[in-house]
Design brief:
Helix content of chain B: 40-55%
Number of strands of chain A: 6
Strand content of chain B: 5-15%
Order of helices and strands of chain B: EHEEHEHEHEHHHHH
Radius of gyration of chain A: 20 Å
Strand order of the largest sheet of chain B: 2-1-3-4-5
Largest interface: A-B, 59 and 57 residues
Strand content of chain A: 5-15%
Distance between the termini of chain B: 42 Å
Oligomer: heterodimer
Shape of chain A: elongated
Shape of chain B: elongated
Structural class of chain A: alpha/beta
Chain lengths: 216, 210
Amino acid sequence: MTGALAGVYTREPLRAYVNATNIEARIELLTLLRRGGIVPTAELDGSADTVVVAAGSTVDEAMDACPEACLSSRHPLLLVADSFPPTGVMRAVKAGVRAMFWFSRATPEQLAAAVQAAHLGECRIPQEAMVRLLGGVVVPGKPAPRPASAAVTMPLTPRQTAVLELMAEGHGNAAIAHTLLCSEHTVKNVIYDMAARLQVRNRAQAVAYAVTEGLI
Amino acid sequence: MGEPVRVSVIALDPILEAGATSALNDCPDVAVVPPQDPAAVSVMIVDKMVDQAFDMLRALRDQPRRPEVVIAAADLAPAEALHAIAAGARGLLRRRETGTAGLARAVLAVAGGDCTVPPDMLAQLFERGPRSLKARDLGPWSGFSTGSGLSDRERAVLALIADGRETDEIARELCYSPRTVVGVVHDITHRFRLRNRAHAVAYAMRAGLL
């Protein structure tokens, strides 16, 4: 089990140099990496087999946690963060970063796969970050949808998010009810509550807001 | 280690399907299931992102389990990638650049809630800015019959729909008749095969058209 995963993808075990703004995050990452078959290392040896794993609460913090040397060196880079605002993701992409990873989703297998992706120069980005960057850029001259104050303090419930996702794929209430195994009446109630919370007038605006904010 | 990710493989070409299936079976973290079985991830092997491929993608996403979709295409242009993402694909690969382990990693990545695109394309998609991909510079893709972008008029109408406006309000604001507004919306939904206004808004935003 341990270490088996890394071996499937490359012959040599990869090394990871971990830098985190927070000591607990660092310890957790080191543990997860070991369990995923990646060997932690304390030195930047200039080898392309040593992946720099930089962690922070936001992608910007993670970028700032990178040792200066590694952005210009051969070391591949994996950014680990809990929040991926578009400006930060754009900054990282412009700096040549191709691999970013959501800390809360880190399992040994997934983290090891992300380190492998970084090592091989593959691209791996949280889906929410991708959607926000592609769809959330504000059209010049058009104000961004205003986040309602309640929406900022209270995240959507899983059910509301599921309904929004299905709405964004063009499904009507009956189809949504069928997929989520609930009644149409429930779907209507969920949409009604959500519209009030997001302060939107209709389904199209709810979906636009959700895509812009990276909620779906 | 957790349960292996259940993945199905769909290809028009049986040889490619067999190749992808055996490649994925070599990875202990994924388990290939028959196409009719519920899967967390579906891998689509196509040559080009033509209409038929978009129909396959939608059919996959409309399954009850709504699997995440990885597309391994022989050829892939940025505009095609944007449309594929908008239509619900999470992983996009060019086959010639992708080894067997790369395919398995892409499956794991989308199962883990991440996206993957060809690395050179990532910078291209973002640095050009999706909205700079207007109809005129979408390159050689013939895609949907009448082009893959939006006209200025279509974009104006869709932007107002995204802002929560109804047909009458849009007509007043843009000095069109309500019938014209309905016609513009119909053109968009028909051309990109979308179900309704909410679908059109989400699709256009995700494809960087709006």
